[in-house]
Amino acid sequence: MSETKKVIGYLPQDKPPFGAMLSLGLQQVLTMFPATVLVAILTKFDIGVTLLASGLGTIIALLVAKRKIPMYYGSSFSYLAVIMTAMATLGADCTDAYCPNVVRLVQVGIILTGVFNIIIGLVVQKLGKKALDRALPPIITGSMAVVIGIALAGVALNDASKHWGVAFITLIATILFSVFLRGKGLLGMLPILFGAIVGYIAAGAFDLIDFSVVANADWLRIPNFTFPAFGSGEAWGMGLSIALIAIATIPESTAHLYQMSLYIDELAKEMGRKEMKIKDLIGLNLVADGANDIVNGLLGGCAGTNYGENNSLMAITRNYSVPVLITAGVIAILLGFVGKLAGVVQSIPTAVTGGLSIYLFGVIGMQGVALIQSEKVDLFSPRNLAIGAVILVAGIGGNMGLPNGTFPFPIPVLFPNGIPAIVFAAILGIGLNVIFEVFAPQKKKEAA
User: Fold this and answer.
1) 88: which of 95, 144, 179, 398 is 20 to 30 A away, CA to CA?
2) Helix (H, G, I), strand (E, B) or coil at 137
3) Is 122 a domain residue?
4) Which domain holds residue 372?
5) Do the Cβ atoms of 113 and 228 come closer than 8 Å?
6) pLDDT tens across 263-304, in order?
7) Is 70 a member of any domain?
8) Could you give the CA distance from residue 350 to residue 163 in angstroms, rounded to a whole number?
9) Model confidence, pTM
10) Spatial distance between the Cα atoms of 238 and 226, rounded to a whole number of angstroms
C-alpha cells in the first residue's frame, strides 16, 4: 500500500495556527510595504494613514468578497500621474512632505474611483465579462497603462537630478535585486525595499539625509486623517480625472483574479478538496476593489489596488488563507500609529525616490505593452492602430508638452483650467471605440 503524500498549503477558508498566522501575516505586510509607502511619499500623502487605510481597506474588501477572494490591497502606481499633477497645480505652494489641503481634494476622486469600480462590478455580474471587454478592449487599457507610466518620466528624472550619483546607485541596485533575487522566496518579493536601503546608505555617505525628521518624530502618534472636500468644484473635476484611471486598473485586477484562481484550484485538487473557481467572481472582485478605495478615500489614504507582489508570495508559499490576510491588515493598521516609522520614511532623500521612480514608472509602461501582447491585440488593424496612437500621443505628448499637462478645453466646475492630458486621452480612446462599435467597418468576405 503506497504512502499518501501530505500536501502543505492553506486554501482561502483555512485558518492556520496562531503563530503561523502571525508570521505569514507579517510576511504579507513586508511584501506590500515598500511600494505602498513609496506611493505615499511621491504623492505627499500621510504615511500613517496610508498604512492604516491599506490594512482596513484590505479587511473590508475581504469581507465584501465573502472571504472567497484572497487579495491584499496596497497603494496603486496607476494613479500617480493624475495625483502628482494635482499636487503640482493645486498645491504648488506646499513644499512639505505632506500636503493635507490637496489630499482632501484628491480623496473625492479616490471615492469616485471606488464607486466606479462597484458600478462596473455590478454590471459585470449582470451582463458578464464580454460586455466589459467591448467597452474597454485591451488596446484602450494597455495604451492607457503605457501613458500612465511614461507620462511620469519627467517627474522621475527631475527627482533623480537632485543627485544623479545617488539616483543611479539606487536604480542599478533595484534592478539587480529585481533580476537576481527573482524566484528566491520572500527575498524575491522585496527588490524595491532593498534598492531603497542601498540608496539610503549612499545618500547618507553624501550627507543628504536630514535625521532630525526621525529624531523629532514621536514613537506613537495619531495618523493625520482628513475629510474629503466634497464641497469643492476643483475636487469633483480632479475626482473625475482620478476615477477614469480605473480604466487601466480593472484589467489588472481581473488578471490577478485569474492568476490566483489557477493556483488555488491546483492546490485544492492536490489536497482532494473542491475547486473554488474564483475566476468566475470577476464582478464581485471589482466590487471589493471599490470598497477598498472608498475606505482609502474616506480616511485620506492613497488610491489602492490588489497587489501582484502579494499574489506571487501566496503562490510561492501556497498560503491563500483569508484569516492570514486579515491578520496582515491588522498589523498594517497598527503600523500606521508608529510615528518613528513615518519619520524614517520621510527622511528618504528625493534622489533616492527618483532612482526608484525611473525603474517603477518604466515598468508600469512596459506592463501596458505586456497587456497588449498577452491579449494578442492585432496591431495591423487600422481600428486598433487609431485608438492606440491617439491615446499615446494625447496622453504622453499632452502631459509633457502642454502647459500644466492640460488640453485648453475648459469645462465649468469639473475642469475650469482645461482637461488633464491623461483624462483627455482616455476620453478620446473610449470615444473612438464607441464610434467603431456603432459603425463597425465591414469585413471583406473571403472568396469562395
Assistant:
1) 144
2) coil
3) yes
4) 18-438
5) no
6) 899 999 999 999 998 988 999 999 999 999 999 999 999 999
7) yes
8) 8
9) 0.80
10) 17
